[in-house]
Design brief:
Structural class: alpha+beta
Strand order of the largest sheet: 1-5-2-4-3
Number of helices: 5
Oligomer: single chain
Largest sheet: 5 strands, mixed
Distance between the termini: 30 Å
Strand content: 5-15%
Order of helices and strands: EHEHEEHHEH
Length: 203
């Protein structure tokens, strides 16, 4: 049967917008208030530091058959990120700005296997005083930047871009295009920290 025309209608969800041929063009950075895409400029990023590989244990009956060969990344604390978001909403009443950046991928995308590299790039881009949470299983992440304005998004995404180019090489461009992201200055238009959290992380 012919496809339902409604399925081909433009999505009203910022996460559903195609970032276009280039990473920073055609509305890749989506302002929640409908602002135009933010121009970006290259920025220096921290050197890529790979954790040392742990040696395999000697064979023996007391050793597990499959032992980890590297140190797992630290677990992200959802409670700390939620608390930072709630504090940012509270400080907004006194005129203190804040910026939220949410990035996600969909499991159906071939590039979804590169999500750990995306998370590592976002962690590198997190400024001092910011909070970060990622749900690696659901391919969701959020950065809370207290005191930051919309302009801070350019540095975050520039660092992410440089990290992926260093870590993934020829696969970096495709991975960048597969990441859907929004920027939410001062939490608007979301009425509460929980509403924004639900949309960015739980949906």
């Amino acid at each position: 049967p012919a496809p339902d025309p409604e399925l081909n209608a433009p999505s009203s969800d910022p996460f559903g917008q195609d970032p276009g041929a280039k990473f920073f063009d055609n509305g890749y950075l989506v302002d929640s208030r409908g602002a135009t895409p933010t121009p970006t400029s290259p920025a220096a990023s921290a050197p890529d530091v790979t954790p040392p590989v742990q040696p395999l244990p000697p064979s023996g009956g007391a050793q597990p058959a499959f032992s980890p060969i590297s140190t797992p990344p630290p677990a992200d604390d959802a409670g700390s990120a939620q608390a930072a978001l709630q504090a940012a909403y509270a400080a907004r009443a006194t005129g203190t700005p804040f910026l939220v950046i949410a990035a996600r991928m969909e499991p159906s995308q071939p590039e979804a296997g590169q999500f750990p590299a995306v998370l590592e790039g976002l962690r590198k881009a997190l400024p001092a005083g910011g909070a970060f949470f990622a749900d690696a299983a659901r391919l969701r992440s959020i950065l809370v930047l207290p005191g930051a304005t919309q302009d801070a998004a350019a540095g975050v995404f520039s660092t992410l871009q440089q990290h992926l180019q260093s870590a993934l090489g020829a696969q970096a461009e495709g991975t960048l295009r597969a990441v859907a992201a929004i920027t939410v200055p001062n939490g608007e238009p979301f009425g509460s920290a929980q509403e924004l959290w639900t949309y960015a992380v739980a949906s």
